[in-house]
Amino acid sequence: MIDSYIPLIIMVSVGFLFGLSNIVLAQFLGPRKNKTKVKLEPYECGIEPTTSARERFSIKFYMTAMLFILFDIEIVFMYPWAIQFKELGMVGFIAMNLFMILLFAGFIYVIKKGALQWR
């Protein structure tokens, strides 16, 4: 039983050692530049910063991002269904139609609540 985990342990160990070695080598081989006041300022595409970096974002930004991720993940559930469509038969077809109806109802609810409007 434990023999089946050996490749996984080796892969995780190699990944950990690779990441650790990159960090250590960057400390020794990386550029050493003098830290001046200008170099320590935040770089924003060459534009002088006008406000604080701690400025708050509108909640609409976060709501839109979360809803995009939510609906995107739900759409990913349709790929396995599409691959196994013939094997699932009518039961799978009805289940996916129910899933799509619920997904569409959630999308309509989000639109009606105005969660995707930027005003």
Helix-strand makeup class? mainly alpha
The coarse overall form would be flat
Q: Round the mean pLDDT to the nearest integer and report it.
A: 86
- CATH level-3 fold name: Methane Monooxygenase Hydroxylase, Chain G, domain 1
Euclidean distance between termini CA atoms? 58 Å
What pattern of helices and strands is seen along the backbone? HHHHH
Tally of DSSP helical segments: 5
Please compute the radius of gyration using only Cα atoms. 25 Å
Number of beta-strand segments: 0
**Helical content band:** 55-70%
Please name the CATH architecture. Answer: Up-down Bundle
Q: Tell me about the largest β-sheet.
A: none
Topology:
Layout: H1 6-29, H2 37-40, H3 59-76, H4 78-83, H5 85-113
What does this structure look like?
The protein is mainly alpha-helical and 119 residues long. It has a single domain (2-113), classed as Up-down Bundle (Methane Monooxygenase Hydroxylase, Chain G, domain 1). The protein contains 5 helices and no strands. It has helices spanning 6-29, 37-40, 59-76, 78-83, 85-113. The longest helix is centred in the last third of the chain and has 29 residues, at 85-113. The radius of gyration is 25 Å and the shape is flat.
